[in-house]
Amino acid sequence: MSSDFSRRDFLRYSGATGAAAFIAATLSACSGGPASTGSVGAGTNKDLITAVIGYGNDQSWDPTQTASAFAMAGIQHVYEGLLDTDPITREPYPALATALPADLNATTWTFTLRDGAKWHDGQPVTADDVVFTFERILGPDNVLTGNFFKSWLKEVKKVDDKNVELVFKFAFPDAAPRLTIAKIMPKHVFSQPGAWDQAKSGKAVGSGPYKQTAHNPKSNTQFEAFDGYSGPRPATVKKMNWLTIVDAAARVAKISGGSAEAQIADNIPYANVDQLKQQGLTVEGGKGMNHMFLMFNTGTKPFDDVRVRQALHYAIDKKKMIDVALKGHGTASSSFLNEGHPDHKRASVVYDYDPDKAKALLKEAGVSNLTVNLMAVNVSWIVDCLPTIAASWEAVGIKTTLEPQDTAALFTKMDQFQDYQVVAAASNPQQFGMDADLILHYNYVPGGLWMKYSHWDGSKDAEKLFSMMDEAGKETDQAKKSELIHKYLDLVAEVAILYPVVHNELMTAWDPKKISGIRAQPYPGINVLQAKRT
């Protein structure tokens, strides 16, 4: 199997839609079949954290090529970047490197690797490993993490065994938090034939505080504290067992009651929040970029007309959607970025609920008796939102059929460029980082999959947007940069090619009597690097 990262690989591993369809091969090291997901005495064993993750664990564990929610959360505990970021504030701190860059506006950054940094197999971390990792990220076949680096990073050079130099195409201060995406990987392990395929299937050899000890794609992944870790955030417990439970009822049951096996669970359904709180659990939401978007096929009439796309957005009763489907845990989109984001500003076009305007735009576009087939991923909260969309569109005279389906099935059709009209799906690029340039590059990039799916790539408006994004990326004055960001966000709102309808909270629950140091994330997964059993 080639190590090239194909379109199909992107869909298999992309957390943008929670895609799961890839059945990863079990690690050869994990012979004898899947281990039990249970742990004797899990609820009272203070040397163990048992966590429940509400996303599939059968996707890629290759840090350079994954957007899997489960894998990315695990990778934060197993691997390190030169710099890493706090999971909530996203402020960078030295990880494998000994210090932050002295001058963020410099066009070369030199990093020294910390003394005593070792891989989980005992070998030392060297500059060769850093160069090896960045060569993979900057390579021509990397269509995921490469998009976050290729516009500004020219190359990474070895100075000596302990020092590396990053050479930029232009000054790019946002590179500091961006470096957490580039988890450094051991060259002696992953340069071997077939090793990248093993990484996709779950093999993990890092330098972080926890080492992976078992990986069973359909059930769980286990970790142990790495005694050789010399970094800033050492392991706080001896062992961790992370269970993958996609079914909401089973996930809630695992953390419920006096004999609950798990101490923490993410992706808590809104309907269960009060129930868990009454049992003494802490349930908190993280507000961020998690959202439902609509994507239009501009190669199919009448969706090539911006007035039709705008009309479909104006027609949606977002308050009803938030009240009924999201139980109040959402906000109507007023920009591509969520409210609360440092660069958020109400866009020049905001799709407040306005059915009369929707009707007027359709009439102006000469469209009547429109029938729309809305394809959608079957993520539970997305499915809950679909009836409101259908009722809203029917109210302005648009006959609507809903077609929710398995995420992998839907995006296999997209990958084959089958014909469609409108797609509703979930996305959260914030799992990679917070800056606007990164978030937009997740969807809006020349030659990118989303642009091809929407048949918008190559249009004059697309070329204008990409040029505006490039201009903003090169600006080092923060005030001027923000102004340029707001201009291209206005364009993204106006054209409504791929655009959020609502941003929603992600709920995390934990037992404060058994675990402390938890903070709810605004993106899928958990981070327990600073958590402790109590």
TrEMBL record:
InterPro entries listed in its UniProt record: Peptide/Ni-bd (IPR030678), SBP_5 (IPR039424), SBP_5_CS (IPR023765), SBP_5_dom (IPR000914), TAT_signal (IPR006311), TAT_signal_bac_arc (IPR019546)
UniProt KW keywords: Signal
Start and end residues of each Solute-binding protein family domain: 91-437
Domain of life: Bacteria
Compartments, record wording: Cell membrane
Family annotation (CDD domains): PBP2_NikA_DppA_OppA_like
Topological relation to the membrane, as annotated: Lipid-anchor
Pfam families associated with the record: SBP_bac_5 (PF00496), TAT_signal (PF10518)
PANTHER family (UniProt xref): D,D-DIPEPTIDE-BINDING PERIPLASMIC PROTEIN DDPA-RELATED, PERIPLASMIC BINDING COMPONENT OF ABC TRANSPORTER
Family: Belongs to the bacterial solute-binding protein 5 family.
UniProt name for this protein: ABC transporter substrate-binding protein
Source organism (scientific name): Nonomuraea purpurea
